[in-house]
Design brief:
Number of strands: 0
Radius of gyration: 18 Å
Largest sheet: none
Helix content: over 70%
Structural class: mainly alpha
Order of helices and strands: HHHHHHHHH
Length: 203
């Protein structure tokens, strides 16, 4: 692949990544309530799922998304359940200003949540099945090109989501007292639960 091809692919991925959706909202909510590290952990999961889609696409296995319909349905509903669970937890939680970013268990769950969010995201599936081939010549792709695509996806999607995580964690000062944090938890919990229901209802 040429430098021009990588630049074009990066631009497309960056635009797709910056469009708000359930993943962006989950990252911003997690970062505000738990700190930047939890948002970064979720970003790792998102990027890992992108690697899976890239490998499927370049291997000529894009049809797997259709042939494994039941498996993708399980992923979708698992993701939806996790979003609803996060939302209910926020709704029922008591305002706590302590940063939970150092909890290893939370990090593991956040990586998994990020992975499931991308794997069940129709936007990601459409991009890799319909748009991705426009930037990559699958007939003449090498292992070096695949590594380059991985790096491009990491820079594009990683930078966008880490940016959201950083801005959201920095915005914690806006909810720096228990009353404000309590209001935020109620609003965020409602919207996060609604996002989960939306993911479950999408066809």
């Amino acid at each position: 692949m040429s430098i021009e091809s990588y630049i074009a692919l990066f631009s497309a991925m960056f635009v797709v990544g910056i469009i708000p959706g359930p993943a962006v909202f989950a990252i911003t909510t997690t970062s505000i309530t738990g700190g930047f590290r939890r948002g970064a952990a979720m970003t790792i999961g998102l990027v890992l799922a992108d690697y899976v889609f890239i490998l499927l696409a370049v291997s000529g296995l894009a049809f797997v998304a259709e042939s494994m319909g039941s498996a993708f349905a399980i992923i979708k509903y698992s993701c939806a359940a996790y979003l609803v669970w996060m939302g209910i937890n926020l709704l029922l939680s008591k305002p706590n200003l302590k940063d939970s970013a150092d909890a290893p268990k939370a990090h593991r769950f956040d990586v998994l949540a990020g992975f499931l969010l991308t794997m069940s995201n129709p936007k990601a599936i459409i991009f890799y099945v319909a748009l991705f081939p426009a930037f990559v010549d699958f007939q003449h792709i090498s292992h070096t090109d695949i590594l380059g695509i991985f790096a491009t996806a990491t820079l594009a999607f990683g930078s966008v989501n880490l940016g959201y995580a950083y801005m959201s964690s920095s915005a914690r000062q806006l909810v720096s007292n228990s009353k404000r944090l309590g209001i935020f938890n109620k609003v965020a919990g409602t919207l996060l639960s609604a996002s989960g229901i939306g993911v479950a209802l999408r066809t």
